[in-house]
Amino acid sequence: MPQVRYFAGAAEAAGLEAESLPGASVGELFAAMTARHPALAEVLPRCSVLVGGVRTADHGVALADDQQVDVLPPFAGG
């Protein structure tokens, strides 16, 4: 299963910093994330998603079983 790492507000909404979830694509992973953590439904649309360290907004991107996915909400400050 893909390994998801949550940062800042996404970690707060999920209630944890990392977990493994099922998903063959980014879209399927998002569905699993919001099913397990409903508060993420409000946060995810504002987040940047990195798949293997590369930013993507395409929910059709395929995920490998051992794929690293990072969920980063907007950060304030400078």
TrEMBL record:
<comment type="similarity">
    <text>Belongs to the MoaD family.</text>
</comment>
<dbReference type="Pfam" id="PF02597">
    <property type="entry name" value="ThiS"/>
</dbReference>
<dbReference type="InterPro" id="IPR012675">
    <property type="entry name" value="Beta-grasp_dom_sf"/>
</dbReference>
<keyword id="KW-0547">Nucleotide-binding</keyword>
<dbReference type="InterPro" id="IPR044672">
    <property type="entry name" value="MOCS2A"/>
</dbReference>
<dbReference type="InterPro" id="IPR016155">
    <property type="entry name" value="Mopterin_synth/thiamin_S_b"/>
</dbReference>
<dbReference type="InterPro" id="IPR003749">
    <property type="entry name" value="ThiS/MoaD-like"/>
</dbReference>
<protein>
    <recommendedName>
        <fullName>Molybdopterin synthase sulfur carrier subunit</fullName>
    </recommendedName>
</protein>
